[in-house]
């Protein structure tokens, strides 16, 4: 039975958390497969409003196992805090599992992320300063420490000593900063290890057995395609692949298990941090979208840059992910606008192009070419059927669907779980999973 990947299709913050929370009811396992606590996934469901950074957004269903996959990097302090916060609000976290292969974010990673950003000055990338880049750098450089290492204190101590000698040389000699104490980190991470031990497991067998039993698995993406190290706006990118290809490696299952790739697109674009964004609106319309959509970062609180939907970037996202279905979120944020626009091509140095340039200096010179549509100026928050959307909204979505070159299965019209139009069910409810009613929307 299938695994379905849920992938951010723009620059992150598309509403992946909402979509995963909606679909997780129908699966037995949800796996976060990339990134770390740079992610901020907001879920608004009958239990309240939650901002998840590393725990999968399927945690709210008692029948759904949630795995923090091998492809993530885990800051134990953040994870333990998130577990405590959720438990404190009555959410059962006993079905959480952490891959023993997931790498740890260590104190020197967060420190170096900040120091590197400061050193870049006006050329700063605008990272979340959560240590993500330095942790993935160490993974590739074979200097990483993994969650499983915490379970063997002797090996952990040895490994930490070797790595920290090197890190302290960088901290003191390159950044003129204070060295970190190996003993303090050792003691602190041993305590984390004891607290996390009940959750740390080998996870590929768990997934394999579930798939063999015919259960459905959801692979929860973090970040978005345009932040991918290969295809994003390099170097203004994150450090692990948010693409469907990354889902297979980062969750630990073969790519042939992934039968559907669900794109999550906003009905417009947003970006937080530096780097080119051809359709960015630095005018009143952009500001009105930011205000209406409360476009401020979940993780850092930074104002998100807002702009029209970018069909050129979207087509690249579809090509490199093989999207089979799409969820369009935040349609309601455009409800108030008299006109809406879709970018269908770029003009680069006076020449029309229909591809997303790989060079950021070319991309920075791209002028978006738009098609304009009448706005619908009707509140869509309470609409639950596609045919009940205003004709103008349907016209906009139809053209958007052509541009992304993949069928729209979900249209989201509000933050809450139930504020959703399911055009075609993405996942059928399987008999193995409980079918919990949504108290807010009993008929949903
Ligand atoms: P993620 O990182 O992709 O999970 O997205 P974020 O949670 O960072 O940002 C998306 C924001 O949009 C969150 O505050 C969601 O609650 C909210 N959201 C999701 N879908 C909708 C929608 O259809 N309409 C509105 N108004 N808000 C939405
Ligand atoms: P979710 O999962 C939006 C951005 C940062 C920065 C760049 C690199 O909530 O969609 P990093 O800390 O990863 O080294 O920062 O990537 N970024 C995100 N932007 N949503 C996210 O996650 C992001 N995770 C990282 O703002 O520009
Ligand atoms: Mg987010």
Ligand inventory: guanosine-5'-diphosphate, 6-O-phosphoryl inosine monophosphate, magnesium ion
The helix/strand class is alpha/beta
Outline = globular
Trace the largest sheet across and list its strands. Answer: 9-7-5-2-10-1-11-15-19-20
Number of strands: 20
CATH architecture designation of the largest domain: Alpha-Beta Complex
DSSP helix fraction: 25-40%
Number of continuous helical runs: 12
The total domain count is 2
Q: What amount of the residues lies in strands?
A: 15-25%
Calculate the terminal CA-CA distance, rounded to whole Å.
Answer: 25 Å
In CATH terms, the superfamily of the largest domain is Adenylosuccinate Synthetase, subunit A, domain 3
CATH topology of the largest domain, what is it called? Adenylosuccinate Synthetase, Chain A, domain 3
Residue runs with pLDDT of under 50 for 5 or more positions:
431-444
How are the SSEs placed, and which strands pair?
Layout: E1 3-8, H1 16-23, E2 29-32, E3 41-45, E4 48-52, E5 65-68, E6 73-74, H2 76-88, E7 96-99, E8 103-104, H3 107-120, H4 132-140, H5 153-174, H6 182-196, E9 200-201, H7 204-212, E10 217-220, H8 244-251, E11 258-266, E12 269-271, H9 284-292, E13 305-307, E14 309-310, H10 311-321, E15 325-329, E16 339-348, E17 351-353, H11 360-365, E18 367-374, H12 391-404, E19 408-412, E20 420-422
Parallel strand pairs: 1-10, 1-11, 2-5, 2-10, 5-7, 6-8, 7-9, 11-15, 14-16, 15-19
Antiparallel strand pairs: 3-4, 12-13, 16-17, 16-18, 19-20
Bound molecules: guanosine-5'-diphosphate (GDP), 6-O-phosphoryl inosine monophosphate and magnesium ion.
6-O-phosphoryl inosine monophosphate binds at residues 8, 12-13, 38-41, 125-128, 130, 132-133, 222-224, 227, 238-239, 272-273, 298.
């Amino acid at each position: 039975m299938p695994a379905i990947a849920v992938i951010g299709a723009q620059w992150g913050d598309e509403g992946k958390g909402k979509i995963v929370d909606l679909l997780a009811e129908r699966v037995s396992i949800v796996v976060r497969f990339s990134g770390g606590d740079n992610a901020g996934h907001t879920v608004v469901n009958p239990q309240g409003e939650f901002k998840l950074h590393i725990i999968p957004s399927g945690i709210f269903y008692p029948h759904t196992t949630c795995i923090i996959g091998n492809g993530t990097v885990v800051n134990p302090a953040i994870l333990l805090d998130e577990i405590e916060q959720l438990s404190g609000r009555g959410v059962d976290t006993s079905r959480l599992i952490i891959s023993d292969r997931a790498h740890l974010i260590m104190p020197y990673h967060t420190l170096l992320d900040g120091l590197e950003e400061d050193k870049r000055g006006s050329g700063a990338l605008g990272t979340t300063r959560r240590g993500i880049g330095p942790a993935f750098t160490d993974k590739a450089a074979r200097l990483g420490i993994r969650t499983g290492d915490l379970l063997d204190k002797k090996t952990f101590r040895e490994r930490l000593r070797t790595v920290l000698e090197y890190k302290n040389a960088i901290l003191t000699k390159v950044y003129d900063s204070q060295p970190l104490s190996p003993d303090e980190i050792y003691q602190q991470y041993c305590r984390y290890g004891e607290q996390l031990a009940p959750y740390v497991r080998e996870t590929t067998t768990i997934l394999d057995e579930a798939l063999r039993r015919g259960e459905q698995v959801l692979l929860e993406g973090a970040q978005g395609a345009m932040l991918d190290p290969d295809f994003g706006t390099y170097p203004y990118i994150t450090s692990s692949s948010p693409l469907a290809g990354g889902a297979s490696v980062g969750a630990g299952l073969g790519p042939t298990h992934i039968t559907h790739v669900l794109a999550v697109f906003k009905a417009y674009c947003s970006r937080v941090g530096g780097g080119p964004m051809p359709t960015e609106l630095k005018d009143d319309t952009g500001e009105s979208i930011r205000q209406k959509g409360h476009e401020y970062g979940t993780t850092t609180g930074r104002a998100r840059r807002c702009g029209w939907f970018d069909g050129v970037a979207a087509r690249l996202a579809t090509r490199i992910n093989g999207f089979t279905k799409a969820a369009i979120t935040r349609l309601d944020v455009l409800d108030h606008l008299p006109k809406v626009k879709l970018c269908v091509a770029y003009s680069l140095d006076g020449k029309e192009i229909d591809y997303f340039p790989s060079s950021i200096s070319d991309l920075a010179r791209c002028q978006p070419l738009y098609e304009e549509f009448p706005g619908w100026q009707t509140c869509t928050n309470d609409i639950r059927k596609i045919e009940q959307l205003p004709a103008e909204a349907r016209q906009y979505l139809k053209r958007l669907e052509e541009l992304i070159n993949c069928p729209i299965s979900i249209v989201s019209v509000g933050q809450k779980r139930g504020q959703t139009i399911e055009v075609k069910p993405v996942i059928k409810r399987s008999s193995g999973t409980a079918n919990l009613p949504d108290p807010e929307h009993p008929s949903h």
